[in-house]
Design brief:
The chain has 409 residues and is α+β, with helices and mostly antiparallel strands. It contains nine helices and 19 strands. The protein has two domains: 38-207, 2-Layer Sandwich (D-amino Acid Aminotransferase, Chain A, domain 1), CATH 3.30.470; 218-407, Alpha-Beta Barrel (D-amino Acid Aminotransferase, Chain A, domain 2), CATH 3.20.10. The longest helix is centred in the first third of the chain and has 23 residues, at 15-37. The radius of gyration is 22 Å and the shape is globular.
Length: 409
């Protein structure tokens, strides 16, 4: 039985294997924790700052393209299995010097995070839920045997980097400073094993809206001819290895007129993610009138999205519980198609750090298009827009909710 065609019953049959995997992961965690505790921890108080002598020109908002321009400085920290974390350094943005045999190039010892800093109406800089990014980054590190670190120490260091490059944080809703923490294995040599050397670095890019077209609905191709992730794999970790293999299917979908892949799994064609985002559907039961906001469960095959978690929390807090249910459950593309035919499909949208909320208008499946309702004359549905507004208000400090926003200065 191939993983691509694994059924739900087959997925359940992996429970014992998954338990073994979890046990291994727990043992790895204990070993990693001991290794980290017995050597120097990441320590923000040891930070060294070397300011650039050649500041870059700041681009106007209308010229900002996602991930194409970078700030004056970067943060770097080296790690060694014997001595632990070295002194962090903020220095001028520059290339890295790595041996061609470094294990990051040959065996994929690489992970990253995506987070943002925002400038609020009072000109203060804020990061949105950075603690969640750090938790996920440590989980990714643990999964591929790279060193873990103290989350609060890295948040402090990132805060110092953002503060130093504060002039690059653009003003205006929809604009922000995208922050990319990255951790790589740097051992030189072609043997594969647990890394004994690593480098953590953070770069920042001033950005506008992820899609140049703005807040407009996208088209998806439901994809079961390629599989993004599988049980017991690492689809729930933010590893570079999860992204490169998805580019070819996206090009194939684009050749048929679709902007992103909607990744399906197993013979049941369960909905998992869209492109590099989590995915939500809104339904209305035609018999009971009850509405449901639903997304795939965290079963190890989808990314543990911070925006996903935020939408679920806001939905459970702010949507009328007499009218709405907010669920994490398996649903198939066939259920989506059937409910669309019955007029029960209300909305669909993706969620992620880069795009925040991305409305969907069409899903291609089995040679036909499933049409997703939008507000008349608009490129989004009412619920999709509501979540975009709720999250934006929190990111830019217009509202506070559960201490999600961290003020830097």
């Amino acid at each position: 039985m191939s993983f691509q065609r694994l059924s739900l019953s087959g997925l359940k049959s992996l429970s014992s294997a998954r338990s073994t995997f979890i046990s291994y992961s727990q043992r790895s965690s204990i070993t990693n924790s001991f290794r980290t505790m017995s050597t120097a921890p990441l320590d923000a108080s040891k930070l060294k700052i070397n300011k650039t002598a050649s500041p870059k020109a700041k681009l106007p908002n209308e010229q900002l393209v996602f991930g194409k321009s970078f700030t004056d400085h970067m943060l770097t920290v080296d790690w060694d299995a014997t001595t632990g974390w070295g002194a962090p350094e903020i220095k001028p943005y520059a290339g890295l010097c790595l041996d061609p045999s470094s294990i990051v190039f040959h065996y994929g010892f690489e992970l990253f995070e995506g987070m943002k800093a925002y400038r609020d109406a009072n000109n203060k800089l804020r990061m949105f839920r950075p603690d969640m990014n750090m938790i996920r980054m440590n989980k990714s590190a643990e999964r591929i045997a790279l060193p873990t670190f103290d989350s609060e120490e890295l948040i402090k260091l990132i805060g110092k980097l953002v503060e130093l490059d504060a002039d690059f944080v653009p003003q205006g809703e929809g604009y922000s400073l995208y922050i990319r923490p990255t951790l790589i294995g740097t051992d030189a040599g072609l043997g594969i094993g647990t890394p004994s050397q690593a480098k953590l670095f953070v770069i920042c890019s001033p950005v506008g809206p992820y899609y140049s077209t703005g807040f407009k609905a996208v088209t998806l191709e439901a994809t079961n001819y390629a599989t993004r992730a599988w049980p017991g794999g690492c689809g729930n970790r933010k590893l570079g290895a999860n992204y490169a293999p998805c580019v070819l299917p996206q090009k194939q979908a684009a050749s048929r007129g679709y902007q992103q892949n909607l990744w399906l799994f197993g013979p049941e064609n369960y909905v998992t993610e869209v492109g590099s985002m989590n995915l939500f559907f809104a339904f209305k039961d035609s018999k009971t009138g009850k509405k449901e906001l639903v997304t795939a469960p965290l079963d190890g095959t989808i990314l543990e999205g911070i925006t996903r978690d935020s939408i679920l929390a806001l939905g459970r807090e702010r949507l009328d519980s007499n009218e709405w249910e907010v669920n994490e459950r398996y649903l198939s593309i066939d259920e989506v198609a059937e409910r669309a035919l019955k007029g029960e499909l209300l909305e669909c949208f993706g969620s992620g750090t880069a795009a925040v909320v991305s409305p969907v208008k069409t899903i291609g499946w089995n040679g036909k298009d499933i049409s997703v309702p939008l507000l008349e004359g608009k490129q989004y549905g009412a619920l999709t827009k509501q979540f975009q507004e709720w999250i934006s208000a929190l990111q830019y400090g217009k509202e506070e909710f559960k201490n999600w926003s961290r003020v830097i200065n």
